[in-house]
Design goal:
By secondary structure, this protein is α+β, with helices and mostly antiparallel strands. Helices cover 25% and strands 33% of the residues. The chain folds into two domains: 222 residues, 3-Layer(aba) Sandwich (Rossmann fold); 121 residues, Beta Barrel (OB fold (Dihydrolipoamide Acetyltransferase, E2P)). Strand 9 and strand 10 form a beta hairpin. It binds adenosine-5'-diphosphate (ADP) and magnesium ion (MG). Magnesium ion (MG) binds next to helix 1.
Length: 372
């Protein structure tokens, strides 16, 4: 088990800065998820931790030992890739044992580790099979097993579930979580899939263009996104954004856009003080657009008139696509709510759950801890 520390790590490939001034401390036994769109530098970051790429600048420590110049094989990390290639002519046992044989581990020690990994992964009855005789999920487990038998200090997992079909991916998520609870090996898990990140990480790092955008728990990312990118990336369907202006009226500030006028709630008054006349972006999650007439009635300063353009029923929920003034908004409503295309509704963004962003810096304006 080990901690991993990254101090101002930058990695350039010619003109491309794949990872930019990345600093993070990963706790002993932590399962850290790194998420971001394709090309944001996730794999590069894992590869510099593994030692497969050298950093351009910065330091990497594994268990307080500077490893910048330590060879990959001496870093005691094991990597699991998306495109795991099992040896097709070897059975499961030999696939699991191969790396250890290369490292000249003693024969009975190899046998112990292979059988233990096979037991943990539910492969004990499949040791004599070849990869072609396994299902996709079983093959993925063998790939994980090859990392487990190494008994490394750190697991580095680069989108290991991306090649599996949707159902299997969900099952393997749970299996990986269980595996981590059992082994407690420090893990850095990379994915481009925000749902996967949200369900698997206790702490998530959101990356964009090689830079950290936010480090937080899943709930904190969802409820207090630090900037427009995180707000739009985490959550499905994504947060609604409306561009407008802050206007002073009767001692309050109001958010104003074509067809929408909403009083800025008290919790955001401090952050918006003095911003009258400034452009602003309002963000509201689909489930935070209230449609229940009883709830909308008591929010006279937050009502929005909207036309229902499309309804997408999903069973438990429905997505209702609205046109409010010139703005398109998506609301998520309970599936039982009767809404039809062409209906005119009065809706209200829940004032306790409105987000405001500065369009110049793209940063969120912070909300006071308690709303009056
Ligand atoms: N060996 C390389 N040579 C040149 N550019 C690279 C190399 N590896 C990655 N890059 C570039 O670095 C950026 C980050 O890539 P990568 O780490 O693979 O992103 P991700 O894994 O998040 O999709 C991309 O712009 C990619 O094209
Ligand atoms: Mg990648």
């Amino acid at each position: 088990m080990a901690t991993v520390q990254l101090h101002h790590v930058t990695k350039q490939f010619g003109d491309v800065t794949a990872v930019h001034d990345f600093s993070l401390e990963i706790d002993d036994g932590e399962f850290l998820v790194l998420v971001g769109p394709s090309g944001c530098g996730k794999s590069t970051l894992l590869r510099v931790v593994a030692g497969l790429e050298e950093v351009t600048s910065g330091e990497i420590y594994i268990d307080d030992r500077l490893v910048n110049h330590v060879a990959p094989k001496d870093r005691d990390v094991a990597m699991v890739f998306q495109n795991y290639a099992l040896y097709p002519h070897m059975n499961v046992y030999d696939n699991l044992a191969f790396g250890l044989r290369m490292r000249r581990v003693a024969r009975d020690e190899i046998d112990r580790r292979v059988r233990q990994a096979a037991e943990i992964l539910g492969l004990a009855d499949l040791l004599r099979r070849r990869p072609a005789q396994l299902s996709g999920g079983q093959r993925q487990r063998v790939a994980l097993g090859r990392a487990i038998v190494r008994e490394p200090k750190v697991f580095l997992m680069d989108e290991p579930l991306s090649n599996l079909d949707a159902k299997l991916r969900v099952e393997m998520r749970t299996e990986l979580a269980r595996l981590h609870q059992r082994l407690r090996v420090t893990t850095i898990y990379v994915t481009h899939d925000q749902t996967e990140a949200m369900t698997m990480g206790s702490r998530i790092v959101v990356m964009k263009d090689g830079r950290i955008q936010q480090v937080a728990s899943p709930l904190e990312l969802y409820e207090q996104p630090a900037n427009l990118f995180v707000a739009g990336f985490i959550g499905s369907p994504p947060m609604n954004f409306v561009r407008g202006t802050l206007e002073p009226r009767d001692g309050d500030l109001w958010f104003a856009a074509a067809g929408i006028s909403i009083r800025v709630p008290g919790a955001l008054a401090g952050a918006t003080a003095g911003l009258g006349g400034h452009p602003i972006v309002l963000g509201v999650r689909p489930e935070d657009i209230l449609v229940d007439p009883e709830r909308v009635r008591v929010l006279p300063d937050h009502r929005v008139e909207a036309l229902v353009e499309v309804v997408e029923p999903l069973g438990a929920d429905a997505f209702v696509h609205l046109l409010a003034g010139e703005q398109r908004l998506t609301a998520r409503v309970p599936g039982r709510v009767k809404v039809r295309v062409g209906d005119r509704l009065t809706v209200a963004p829940d004032p306790d759950r409105i987000h405001l962003f500065d369009p110049a810096t793209e940063q969120a304006l912070s909300r006071a801890a308690t709303s009056p």
